[in-house]
Amino acid sequence: MISAIRFLPVAALLLAGGVGPCAAQSARSASFVTLGTMGGPIPSPTRHQPSNVLIDHSRPYLVDAGDGVADQLARAGISLLAVDTVFLSHLHFDHTGGLAGFLGLRYQAGGSSLVTIYGPPGTKRMVDGLIASMQPAAEASYGIPGQRSVAPETTVKVIELGGGETIRVDAMTVKAAQNTHYSFAPGSAEDVRYRSLSFRFDTAGRSIVYTGDTGPSSAVEQLARCADLLVSEMIDVDATVANVRRNAPDMPAGALAGMVQHLSTHHLTPDQVGELAARAGVKRVVVTHFVGTSTPAAEAGYLAAIHRGFDGPATIASDLERF
Question: What's the whole-model pTM score?
Fold first, then answer.
């Protein structure tokens, strides 16, 4: 099935819960599965790179596609061929590294139906490169002389979003907002070409907001207004910097300073996650894209920091959990 896209007027956004008082939701009808919960780019032996599946009315939608996503879909009991819609928050490798495997394996398994990929500017350029990488295998197919294969480019459709759109995808209303994972000057050439998005998924009975990678952002706060579930990234800056120093002791001072600036301004600390959740009035927080220390004591400390600002339930997710 081809996912439909329809741009909605502002009035529809108001009804979808983007502004106004928080309203009660009907019975839960959608779930969110955290396939991969480790912020990249360094691989982890216990967590996969960022990827998720939103399931609405039994239909799976891939939300980011980090390395290993095809394997994680199998572990979650979801067939590659069942997924025909992908949302990409931004184009960093830890969020897209598994897309080539997803598209290629799906194609080889007989998945010639159209996959629609929603993502920020640059998504089509990236996907065109992935399709080009599929051509030799597609042309050789199963090595039978005279056999003709489906052209890979006919199996993928890309729709780029800049942030601010509200679209209809099957039974869901989806809103995209430009966040602060990048700090290019508004309106600059870099800002036009490179954007990072957060998504809100409003289903018949539940609203789910996925921050992707972001720093503090009023746009994300507005996007998350009254959501039933906020799926947020989180970083322990001090622990991350210490880890980098251990693994790259010869990193030049300038490069280290730039990395620290990125970590400090383009990501959310535990306190900032709690502040975002409280200001938006969300009902529950799930932390993914986890970058920190995975010990019970450390995770308890992160949750305590979140709860300094947010008094609702909060969870640091592991791979293959369902919320």
Answer: 0.90
